[in-house]
Amino acid sequence: MQNNKSPSYILKHVFGYDNFRGAQEEIINHVIAGKSCFVMMPTGGGKSLCYQIPALYLDGVAIVISPLIALMQDQVTALNQAGVSAAAINSSMSQFEVSEVKQQVQNGQLKLLYVAPERLMMEGFLDSLKQLPISLFAIDEAHCVSQWGHDFRPEYRRLREIFEKISHVPIIALTATATPKVQLDIQKNLSMVDAKVFKDSFNRSNLYYEIRPKRDVEKEIIKYVKSKEGQSGIVYCLSRKKVEEISELFQVNGIKALPYHAGLDAEMRAKHQDMFLMEEVNVIVATIAFGMGIDKPDVRYVIHHDIPKSLESYYQETGRAGRDGGVGDCIAFYSYKDIEKLEKFLQGKPLTELEIGKQLLHEIVSYAETSVCRRKFILHYFGETFDEKKCNEQCDNCRNPRERKDGREFVLMLLEAIMLLEETQKSKHYCAYLAGNLTADIKSYKHEKLPSFGIGKEKDEHFWNAVIRQVCVGGLVYKDIESFGTLKLTEKGKKFIEKPEEFMLIKQHDYSGDDDEDGVVQVSGKGGAFDEKLYDLLVDLRKSLAKEKNIPPFVIFQEPSLRDMCLQYPITLDELTNIQGVGAGKAQRYGEPFLALIADYVEEHDIERPQDMVVKSLVNKSMLKVQLIQNIDRKLPLEDIASSQGKSFNELLDEIESIVNSGTRVNINYYINSVLDNENQEELYDYFSSAETDDILDAYHEFDGLYSEEELRLMRIKFMSEMAN
C-alpha cells in the first residue's frame, strides 16, 4: 500500500463527496485490509465507490468484471473525467484499441480495467493478466452469477476458477438486486460463504410506486410525460419495435425523446445516451439494454409500458429514478396479456430455466396485483421487514387504501389445506383446491376426494391467490424456491392453526376488467372508477333508440364505447370521436341524444371531467388504414392485403372491425360472395338483425358450429357496415 492519501481524501478530492454513505467506509477499509466481501446496496446507493476507492488506494490495477458494454463505458468515462486512469476492453473495440489498452496496463498506467467475463476466459488474456500486479477483483452486477438471478450469465459461474489461476487478492462482489436465495447462490459459487456480507436497506424512501391497468396506455403515458415537462424520465418497453413506436409517438406529440435498444449501432446508442445526459432530450424510450450504470441523478420518473419479467428487473429499473434523493415516480402499466406474452418467451427453455422463469413471473404478477403496501411487498421479497406505516403514502395502495376485513376463517382454510396436502403444492393448486375447481392436477393427485376439497368455493381462485400473497407477506407461509415455489408453513403459520387470531385481509385490485363486488371497476391506481349509474342510463337510452329505429342496440354503440363514455364523460361531438370505437360518422349519426344525456348528468352530479388532451396518432398507422380501405375498394383478396401489411388474416379482420365500429362503411361483399352463398348470407344477416348481442361465440353456438369464426366475423362486418354506418 504505497498510497499516502487516505480513503477520505480520495472521496473528497477525486470524487467530490464530503462524507461516506451507509457502510461505504467500512467496506472500503475491509477491502484495503485484503479481505473479500459481498455487498448488497440499492441502485444509486454508491456501490461503485466501494471498489473504486480501494483501487486508487492500493498498488496495481483493479480488474472489474462487468456484464454490459454500456455500463463499462459509463464508468470509464466518469472516472476519466474525475482524473482517474481507467479503461475497458470489450467486443466493440478494434484490435488496435485493445492493444493500446493492454500496453497501458503493462506499463502500469491504469488503476482500473473493466472487462466482460467472456474476455476473462480467453487463454491469451489470462496469461497477460498473470504477469500484472493486481490490487483486487470487483464483480459488478454479481446477481448474474446466479441462475436464480434475473439476468443470469453462464460465464459468471466460472469466475472463481479464473481468479484462483491469476492471483489471491481480495474479491468484492456487488449487486443491487439479490433475494436471500440469490445471495446464497452467489456466495457458494464464488466460494465466498465465509466472506463478510454488507447489506444496506433496499428501501428507497423517495420513490413512489404505482401500478395502473393497461388501458389507453400510450395516451396515459403522453399525458403523464407532458405533465412533467422539462423533467428527465425513462420509459421501458419489452420490444425494440415498441420502443421505436413510443419514441416516434412522443416526437409527434412535441416531446423530446429518443429510442435506445440493442438494435441501434454502438455509435447511435452512445449519442442518444449522451443527449439524454446533457438534457438535449428529456425522455429515453428503451429496452432493458439501457440504464445499467447510468449516473444521471435527476431522473424524475421511470415508466414501464410493459411489466418486466421479474421483480428484480423492476426494482433495478425503477432504481434509476431519484438518485439525487429528490422525487422519483415509478409507474408501471399492467395487464394479464403482458404475462401471457412473457410466458410464451419461456416456451422451449430447459426445464430448470422454465420453472425459475415461471416462479419469477409469479412474483411480479403478485406484486402488480397486490393491494398491500408495495414498498413492504418489495422489501419482503428481498428479505427485509418493513412497517407499512413508514411508507408515508409513497405507493398507490397506501395513498388509496383498500377495504380491510378480518379474514381469519379464510387464512385458516388455506393453512389447513397446505398442512393436509403436506406442503407439496404451489399457489395455483391450492387456489383451485379451495375454490373447488376440478383441474387436471387436482384429478391426477385425486385431491377432489379429500373432505376439504372446495371448502372455500364461495370465493374464486383470484380471491384465494390474494389470500396466499397476503399470508406470505404476513410471514405465515413462505415459498420454497428450491422446489420452484412450493408453499410451506412457517412456525408463525403453525401457531396460527393452533390458535387463530385476527388477520386483516385487504380487498384486491382486479385487472381482468370484470365488475368487482361493489359494482365498480377500478380503472386507475389513483382511484378513478367506472360510473355504474351513468352506464345504466346510457344502456336504457340505447335500448329505446334501437327500438325506435328497429335495429339491435349494439349497432348504435357497442359495450366498450358505452363503458368509455362512463370514464371520459364526452359532451361534444369532437370529444365523442375520442371514445373507443366511435368515429366521426357514428358520432354524427347517433351521438346527439347521448351527449345531451351525459351533459345533463355531469351538471346534475357536479362531475369533474378528466381534462383529456388529444394525443396525435402516428402517421404510419393512419396510412395503413387508408391503404387497407383503398385495397378493399380495389377488391383485392383479403389474404393478399393481410400479407402485404405483415398481418395474419385474423389481425386484418381486427383492423377492418375497428374501422367499421368507428363509423366508416367498408364494402367486402366481393370477398364474402367468394366464401358464402346467398342463402347462408341471408341467414346470418337475419340472425344479426334480431340478435341481442353481436358476440361471435353466441352466434357460433346458435348455429351449432355450422359456420366458422371467420365466416361469422365477415358477416358481422357486412351487417355493422350497412346498418350502423
* CATH topological fold name of the largest domain: Rossmann fold
- Helix-strand category: alpha/beta
CATH architecture of the largest domain: 3-Layer(aba) Sandwich
In total, the number of domains comes to 5
The total of beta strands comes to: 17
Largest beta sheet, briefly?
Answer: 7 strands, parallel
CATH superfamily of the largest domain: P-loop containing nucleotide triphosphate hydrolases
Beginning-to-end CA distance, first to last residue: 84 Å
**What oligomeric state best describes the polypeptide chains here?**
single chain
Shape: globular
Output the radius of gyration.
30 Å
Helix content: 40-55%
Mind explaining what this structure looks like?
The protein is α/β, with parallel strands linked by helices and about 725 residues long. It has 5 domains: about 5-200, P-loop containing nucleotide triphosphate hydrolases (Rossmann fold); about 205-400, Rossmann fold, CATH 3.40.50; about 405-505, Arc Repressor Mutant, subunit A (Orthogonal Bundle); about 530-605, DNA polymerase, domain 1 (Orthogonal Bundle); about 620-725, Orthogonal Bundle (Arc Repressor Mutant, subunit A), CATH 1.10.10. The chain contains 34 helices and 17 strands. The strands form 4 sheets. The chain has a 7-stranded parallel β-sheet with strand order 3-4-2-5-6-1-7, with helices on both faces. A 6-stranded parallel β-sheet has the order 8-13-12-9-11-10, sandwiched between helices. A two-stranded antiparallel ribbon has the order 14-17. β5, α8 and β6 (about 170-175) form a beta-alpha-beta unit. The longest helix is centred in the last third of the chain and has 21 residues, at about 585-605.
